[in-house]
Automatic annotation (TrEMBL), chain A:
Description of how the protein assembles with itself and partners: The complex is composed of two ATP-binding proteins (PstB), two transmembrane proteins (PstC and PstA) and a solute-binding protein (PstS).
Source organism (scientific name): Rhizobium aquaticum
Pfam families xref list: PBP_like_2
Record's signal peptide: 1-26
Job description of the protein: Part of the ABC transporter complex PstSACB involved in phosphate import.
Organism lineage string: Bacteria, Pseudomonadati, Pseudomonadota, Alphaproteobacteria, Hyphomicrobiales
Domain PBP: residue ranges: 24-308
Keyword line: Phosphate transport, Signal, Transport
Family that this chain belongs to: Belongs to the PstS family.
Protein name from the UniProt record: Phosphate-binding protein PstS
Alphabetized InterPro entries for the sequence: ABC_phos-bd_PstS, PBP_domain, Phosphate-bind_PstS
Transmembrane segments: none
SUPFAM superfamilies: Periplasmic binding protein-like II
From TrEMBL, chain B:
Residues of the ABC transmembrane type-1 domain: 85-313
PANTHER family per UniProt: PHOSPHATE TRANSPORT SYSTEM PERMEASE PROTEIN PST, PHOSPHATE TRANSPORT SYSTEM PERMEASE PROTEIN PSTC
Pfam families: BPD_transp_1
Protein name per UniProt: Phosphate transport system permease protein
Membrane topology: Multi-pass membrane protein
Chain segments annotated as transmembrane: 28-53, 89-110, 122-146, 152-171, 178-199, 292-313
Main location: membrane
Family per record: Belongs to the binding-protein-dependent transport system permease family. CysTW subfamily.
UniProt KW keywords: Cell inner membrane, Cell membrane, Membrane, Phosphate transport, Transmembrane, Transmembrane helix, Transport
Subcellular location, record wording: Cell inner membrane; Cell membrane
Task of the protein: Part of the binding-protein-dependent transport system for phosphate; probably responsible for the translocation of the substrate across the membrane.
UniProtKB/TrEMBL annotation, chain C:
Highest classification ranks of the organism: Bacteria, Pseudomonadati, Pseudomonadota, Alphaproteobacteria, Hyphomicrobiales
Primary localization: membrane
InterPro entries recorded: MetI-like (IPR000515), MetI-like_sf (IPR035906), Phosphate_PstA (IPR005672), Phosphate_transprt_permease (IPR051408)
Name of the featured protein: Phosphate transport system permease protein PstA
Keyword Membrane: yes
UniProt organism field: Rhizobium aquaticum
Subcellular location: Cell inner membrane; Cell membrane
Domain ABC transmembrane type-1: 72-275
Segments passing through the bilayer: 21-47, 67-100, 112-133, 139-157, 190-210, 256-275
Family, as annotated: Belongs to the binding-protein-dependent transport system permease family. CysTW subfamily.
Top-level lineage group: Bacteria
Gene3D superfamilies xrefs: MetI-like
Length: 342, 323, 283
């Protein structure tokens, strides 16, 4: 009995001292939001930690949850694929800047159809997600894909159950190419999907599609590559069929007039150009102009500076489009005004 | 006469002072225990109060009609409790329908049929099943059961029961594997060990005399079970079932992985759906405003629901039994 | 004529008995089967994912090497402090209800309330702690996680203590009273000692229960890929890590999730077995 007590006391003391020692370490730079940017941001965080020993703790909870956490001041920065409106930024004392661009691809899981084999266009895509096209061997799909062996399995639509910037950009594209979609569903981080069921995060969507035969969804390109999933080519605004690749994503982002837009608010879906990927998206990082803890804010900005300057290789290796140097210089210049950096 | 005091000199001992110290120590100890017991009660009250306060905005917006609202849609900011509540109730009900017969079967096996040396290991194995964390049920359900459902079981059900009029409405596509039925199956396996343990314990309280005389009369094992064991332990059995039901109602992780997170009300039980706990687990992290308070309102409903089931169970078993 | 009827009835009875007994054996077989599937799946996916990395490195981003060290530490730390808080309070509370107030209406109500807390859905506890601690603290923390798990463990320990104290014969209590010792001394030295094994079993079972809990930690302790040894800031725990990693499409991360699932299940089963060996369960 006595021995147990001694042991317990000793263990408690050890645990307590270890914990207190840990508690004295500097607070982490915390962020939350878009799962679109998660793969590359995680890589950046690893590189940054190796270079500076500072920890950037990012939670991939979806753009909606990320902004909510930022507004609740439980994180230092938020990341969202739906840019915040001028009004919201003003009202909450926030400032945003673009961090990355990339492509959203349509992913599918069909027996007998290989990745990269199918072609969709805006019309068929909105037909599927509206629930008008219900089987894979539908005439419209066959017309776009005369050579593919499309089975008669029912189409299972999978969407993002959480508030997602990826959803915003995807529905933004559908609204641009389908007036019916624009009227019936519209575009936002969360919409009333006419058919299908939801999964949480880009991660959840990828897993669900991989598990569900006959399913279709939309997700950031790097998830499809990492999970070796089916993805489609798209017919873009110029009528050309393009593959999801770094150069088609770059073509889409190239049209963005970052410097000219107020609060860097530029949407890159359905851009013109022969080689443009139609469903491209960008992620913005949002921070407080007058934060409670300026040191943490400065720490976060230092991380993003590192990412702009040294993170380009990480980005391109994961098929993201890094923000061009000319733009990142303008962004970092704007930090002086917005965040008071030197 | 033996000197029981062992030669000790008690004339110097201040009995009054010692007694006073003892009394003080006793008082302190008494208050420590009282405070601890009171703390438990306080915590429950605190939980109720916080839940009610945080759920208030929803009831202020909808009044009681929240309880029968059939639309839950975050994008349009409309919230009604019915889809989630129905999901919870249906999945728990089906889970019980599956688990209870199997549990009774296992209990009868353990008490009547099982050869002596096997009794302990099998009983322990069943109890170990109870110790497996619920998230394990969730991931095994997701990676093992869901594909099975999607590829074989659900298409079979659609082709057979789905064609029968009336009941067929419950078995319609879409059936991608996740859904209420899958969740019910996982829940059933989760609840199984609890009900089995309670049923077995309760069967063991039947006086051997009663059993022996029944066998002596020539009753078969089944007849003994049906006519002696079950009626004798009726109250305890129902109590055990109620406790299992309470567990099933509140289960979160096992269900969240396999239920689908669709808040649309639908007739088909094989399509993706939602339950109260799954809805909270899925959307709490990013909810705010009306959605947040509606989720907490759902939580409050769940709390009240499991309280009612527990109260019923207690009334049935009395206090002498296990959890 | 009568003979035939009697024979018919008999064969029907025996037939029905045969059927029912077969079904009950099938049921027991099903139970074993489910256990085998769960453990089998865990072993199949988990064992191949175990490596030294799992025990020495923290959770990685997809594509990098890593392990579950931070999650294992998180679970150990949060569970430890939760029991540190819940066990003494639970034992004292149970003591009050049985030793001092047994039989009174107030005690009956308090016992009932304890059982309500015991059966409360754990996610509701998480929601409560979120509102009570996470929001004022502006963020996830080990403190919030500890509070949530303590709230779950408390009624368990309370209940077990009550059950164990009830088993102590009254004669023992009367004997210690006759010794002239203060009541609290007789409680701790005599009565606790005789109920100690049972109470310890209860604490171990509570440990097994809370270390596997996921839902209450989701919004309280949160999640982190990095090692966090302090009380503040998000901290990873094994169940939440499994939850997050299992949903990731990356193969490496999914494997890590299975490894974590195996580790936590083995740990909990081990604690359960130890508890049962100590408690000397019935047949």
């Amino acid at each position: 009995m006595n021995l147990i007590r001694k042991f317990a006391a000793g263990a408690a003391a050890a645990a307590l001292s270890l914990t207190l020692a840990g508690a004295s370490l500097a607070a982490d730079i915390t962020g939350a939001g878009s799962s679109f940017i998660n793969p590359v941001l995680s890589k950046w965080a690893e590189g940054y930690k190796a270079a500076t020993s500072n920890t950037v703790n990012y939670q991939s909870v979806g753009s909606g949850a990320g902004i909510k956490q930022l507004l609740a001041k439980t994180v230092v920065f938020g990341a969202t694929d739906k840019p915040m409106s001028d009004g919201d930024l003003e009202k909450n004392g926030l400032a945003q800047f673009p961090m990355i661009s990339g492509g959203i691809v349509v992913t599918y899981n069909i027996d007998g159809v290989k990745p990269g084999e199918l072609v969709f266009d805006g019309e068929t895509l909105s037909g599927i997600f509206l629930g008008k096209i219900t089987k894979w061997d539908d005439a419209a799909l066959k017309k776009l894909n005369p050579d593919a062996k499309l089975p008669s399995t029912p189409i299972s639509v999978v969407y993002r159950a959480d508030g997602s910037g990826t959803t915003f950009n995807f529905t933004n594209y559908l609204s641009k190419v389908s007036p019916e979609w624009k009227e019936k569903v519209g575009s936002d981080t969360a919409v009333q999907w006419p058919v299908g069921f939801g999964a949480k995060g880009s991660e959840g969507v990828s897993t669900t599609v991989a598990q569900t035969a006959g399913s279709i969804s939309y997700v950031e390109y790097s998830y499809v590559v990492a999970n070796k999933m089916g993805f489609s080519k798209m017919k873009n605004a110029a009528g050309k069929v393009v593959e999801p690749k770094l150069d088609t994503f770059t073509a889409a982002a190239a049209n963005a007039d970052w410097k000219g837009a107020k609060n860097f608010n530029v949407i890159v879906t359905n851009q013109p150009g022969d080689n443009t990927w139609p469903i491209a998206a960008s992620t913005w990082v949002v921070l407080y102009k007058q934060p409670a803890d300026k040191a943490l804010n400065d720490g976060a900005l230092d991380f993003f500076k590192w990412a702009y300057e040294k993170g380009q290789k990480d980005a391109t290796s994961l098929n993201y489009v890094a923000i061009p140097d000319s733009v990142s210089k303008v962004v970092m210049e704007s930090w002086k005004k917005d965040f008071g950096t030197k | 006469m033996v000197d029981a005091t062992n030669g000790a000199d008690f004339s110097r001992v201040d009995v009054a002072a010692i007694t006073k110290t003892f009394k003080l120590q006793d008082r302190i100890f008494f208050f420590m225990t009282l405070a601890s017991a009171a703390l438990v009660v306080l915590m429950l009250l605190a939980i109720l109060v916080v839940l009610v306060i945080d759920a208030l905005p929803t009831f202020q917006t909808y009044g009681l009609s929240f309880l029968w609202g059939t639309v839950w849609s975050a994008p349009t900011e409309k919230f009604g409790a019915v889809p989630a509540v129905m999901g919870t109730l249906i999945s728990s009900l089906i889970a019980m329908l599956i688990a209870v017969p199997i549990s009774f079967g296992i209990a009868i096996f353990l008490t009547e049929l099982c050869p002596g040396p096997l009794r302990r290991p099998i009983g322990t194995a069943i109890e170990l099943l109870a110790g497996v964390p619920s998230i394990i049920y969730g991931i095994v359900g997701l990676f093992v059961l869901v594909p099975l459902m999607q590829l074989y079981i659900l298409p079979f059900l659609i082709a057979t029961i789905g064609q029968v009029p009336v009941i067929g409405y419950l078995f319609q596509p879409p059936a991608p594997g996740v859904g209420l039925l899958t969740a019910s199956l996982v829940l059933a396996i989760m609840v199984l060990p609890f009900i089995t343990a309670i049923t077995r314990d309760v069967f063991l309280t039947v006086p051997p005399m009663l059993r022996e005389s029944a066998y002596g009369m020539g009753m078969t094992t089944w007849e003994v079970a049906r006519n002696i064991l079950i009626p004798y332990t009726r109250r305890g059995l129902v109590g055990g079932v109620m406790l299992g039901l309470g567990r099933a109602l509140g289960e979160t992780m096992a269900v969240t992985f396999v239920v689908g997170s669709v808040t649309r009300l639908q007739a088909s039980i094989i399509s993706p759906s939602t339950t109260i706990s799954a809805q909270i687990a899925n959307t709490f992290g990013e909810a705010d405003g009306l959605q947040l308070s509606s989720l907490i309102a759902l939580g409050l409903l769940l709390f009240i629901l499991s309280f009612c089931v527990l109260a019923l169970a207690k009334w049935m078993i009395g206090r002498s039994d296990s959890f | 004529m009568e003979d035939t009827i009697r024979q018919n009835i008999m064969s029907r009875r025996y037939g029905r008995n045969r059927l029912m007994m077969t079904l009950s054996v099938v049921a027991a077989g099903l139970g074993m089967f489910f256990l085998a599937i769960i453990l089998g799946t865990l072993l199949f996916h988990g064992v191949s994912s175990l490596s030294l990395d799992v025990f020495t490195m923290s959770i990685p981003a997809e594509g990098s090497r890593g392990g579950l060290l931070n999650a294992m530490y998180g679970t150990a730390m949060v569970t430890f402090f939760a029991i540190l808080i819940a066990a003494p309070i639970g034992i004292l509370a149970g003591t009050y209800l049985i030793e001092y107030a047994n039989g009174s209406k107030l005690a009956e109500v308090a016992k009932f309330i304890n059982d309500i807390l015991l059966s409360a859905p754990s996610i509701i506890i998480g929601v409560f702690v979120y509102g009570a601690i996470v929001v004022p603290m502006r963020g996830n923390s080990a403190i919030a996680g500890i509070a949530a798990l303590a709230l779950i463990a408390l009624p368990v320990v309370n209940r077990t203590t009550q059950d164990m104290l009830l088993l102590v014969p009254n004669a023992l209590r009367e004997a210690t009273a006759a010794l002239g010792a203060p009541r609290w001394k007789s409680m701790t030295h005599v009565i606790y000692r005789s109920a100690w094994t049972g109470i310890l079993t209860g604490i171990l079972l509570a440990v097994a229960r809370i270390s596997g809990e996921t839902a209450p930690l989701l919004f309280t302790a949160g999640y982190s890929k990095f090692m966090n040894a302090g009380f503040t800031g998000p901290i990873a725990t094994l169940p939440v890590a499994i939850n997050t990693l299992a949903a990731d499409p990356g193969e490496d991360l999914k494997r890590l999730a299975w490894a974590g699932a195996l580790i936590i299940t083995v740990a909990i089963l081990a604690i359960n077995i130890i508890a049962r060996l100590m408690g000397g369960r019935r047949q």
